[in-house]
Amino acid sequence: MHDRGASRSRRRFLGGSLAALSAAVVAGCDRLGDTGWFSALLRTGETLTRATQRLLVPRTALAQEFTDADVKGPFRSNGTSHPRSAAYDALAANEFADWRLRVDGLVARPLELSLDELKAMRSRTQITRHDCVEGWSAIAKWTGVPLADVLDRASPQPNARFVVFHCADPMRADGSEPYYESIDMIDAYHPQTILAYRLNDAPLPIGNGAPIRVRIERQLGYKMAKYVMRIELVDRFDHLYGGNGGYWEDRGYAWYAGV
Amino acid sequence: MSNLYYRHRLPVRLMHWVNAAVFVVMLMSGLMIFNAHPTLYWGDESYGGAPKLLQIRGVNTDAGPVGLTTVFGRTFDTTGVFGAAPNAHGGVTLRAFPYWSTIPSDYSLAAGRRWHFFFMWVLVGNGLLYVLWSLASRHLSRDLAPTTTDLRSIWQSVKDHARFRHPRGEAAKHYNVLQKLTYLSVIFVWFPLVILMGFAMSPMLNALAPGWVDLFGGRQSARTLHFVAAFALLAFMALHVFLVITTGLWNNLRSMVDGYYRIRPPLAAMAASELPPIEYAAIEYPAVDASSSPPPPGPADTPPAGAARAEPDRPNDSPPKDSPNA
């Protein structure tokens, strides 16, 4: 009895010491993380990763594709499940017949495309795995028009470097801060980058981004904007919103989401 | 009576400490990333009935916050540590791993990822440098590769470890066989696995050769294996630190700081009857009562481990040229 008590208190002491030591390490790292030079240093990791992965992985290398048997359930709705916007609700009430996708910015021919026009274009169907930055994955079947075809129709100017997706979903209750994302021309012209209007052989539901969500299969989920209203080609994005090229990027996440 | 032996060369010492610090940072920033989705699965995906191997949850009950950890379907109450634990601000937070185990301490997936994906480069760079250096300097072939004698003495080594009997004299200049095998598994199994499973979680690297991730069971399996390998390395670190403390903390620490390690005389050398009389006479030692002043063992060019042969006491604080660890 006495021995057990002693060994328990020894264990508690040891555990407590370890936690205290660990907390000291954590406190030090927290302070370091708050200094400007150190957080700038940490961000060089993203540049290094992007450069290395772009060097290593061929531009058109495809993400793994699966079979119908691998699609096992409904696809999870994550983030916005229904945009808090009267304008969006009006479009949805009409099954997006009045919705138009604007393609503008650094293009020779700005476009306005209806959903039917998009559906009339060449389509691609792919069964892919969606990887969320949080760590989960889900397999689903997507059908849509290759972004490359839409861009070709608009004819990008030579100085266009990024494709920005402007979305219908405001991220704040007061209707402000719309979701947006941006990718480079490599991902924009990747064969699996599509503007998807079908999910698992059915029209894309509102929970998953109706009328279209972009699929960028070699990056994490937050790059794949839902409720896309406008595609803008730019040569830089530091003038947009928080200046980091995306809603989550403006909140500290990496612009390059290949890891 | 000094008998210092030059045990670790400068590159090993440097790379050891870089690795130690970076591993801790990788582990703790990794726990922050895990907190964003504290469930591990087997297979390609997390839904569609994928088996959950581990899940940590925090729930608010009438009796207060409760932390629940489910391992292979069995649920344990882990309140206070996993799932629900005191935070740094005097309250209780529902999260898988507590604040004192994660970098940063307050929940931030974005910041955890920034730490993880910067220091992964340091970890991999340092590890590659170590392997290349170990090959080039023959550290690997001379110090780490087990000999046939080693392999035959595994059981003896297990018994020695179980009795906390650690090598003295000549034998203390070499890694023992369990030590060699453990270090080799850390260098060539666990670190490569944790790194490879990190690659397997990258959607861009998935495209390098479509389907390669399925060799490890799929992306969610890779995430699980990443976690398993990280905890295998943590277990190694805990055992390593335990042995460093119990086999002579300061002597061990010193050898990883300035390289020098004090060899304890072999117990057998204390038997005066076994001392060669000729060397005795030559240096005019008085008749030695072995138990009061044991002559130290000689440098590396003296007989092999186990042969009790005392040498005159002489300073030995420079690296012997042919010593296996130098």
Describe the structure.
The complex is a heterodimer of chains A (259) and B (326). Chain A has 259 residues and is of the alpha+beta class. Chain A folds into two domains: 2-54; 63-251, Oxidoreductase, molybdopterin-binding domain (Sulfite Oxidase, Chain A, domain 2, Alpha-Beta Complex), CATH 3.90.420.10. Chain A contains six helices and ten strands. Chain A has helices at residues 2-34, 36-56, 86-93, 115-120, 147-154, 185-188; strands spanning 100-105, 111-114, 124-131, 137-146, 162-170, 178-184, 194-199, 202-203, 213-215, 228-234. A five-stranded mixed sheet of chain A has the order 2-1-10-5-6. In chain A, strands 3, 4, 7, 8 and 9 form a five-stranded antiparallel sheet that branches. The termini of chain A are far apart. The mean pLDDT of chain A is 94. Chain B has 326 residues and is an alpha+beta fold. Chain B has two domains: 4-29 and 106-255, Transmembrane di-heme cytochromes, Chain C (Fumarate Reductase Cytochrome B subunit, Up-down Bundle), CATH 1.20.950.20; 39-96, no CATH class. In chain B, the strands form three sheets. Chain B has a four-stranded antiparallel sheet with strand order 2-3-4-5. Chain B is globular. Residues 277-286 and 288-326 of chain B have low confidence and may be disordered. Classes of the chains: A alpha+beta (259), B alpha+beta (326). At the A-B interface, helix 1, helix 2 and strand 4 of A face helix 1, helix 2, helix 7 and helix 8 of B.
CATH architecture of the largest domain in chain B: Up-down Bundle
Number of domains of chain B: 2
CATH class of the largest domain in chain A: Alpha Beta
The CATH topology of the largest domain in chain B corresponds to Fumarate Reductase Cytochrome B subunit
Strand content of chain A: 15-25%
Poorly predicted runs of chain A are: none
| Strands in their spatial order, largest beta sheet of chain A | 2-1-10-5-6
Given the structure, what is the number of helices of chain B? 10
Helix content of chain A: 25-40%
Number of strands of chain A: 10
Ranges of chain B where pLDDT stays below 50 over 5 or more residues in a row are 277-286, 288-326
Global structural class of chain A: alpha+beta
Query: Strands across the major sheet of chain B, in which order?
Result: 2-3-4-5
Overall mean pLDDT of chain B: 84
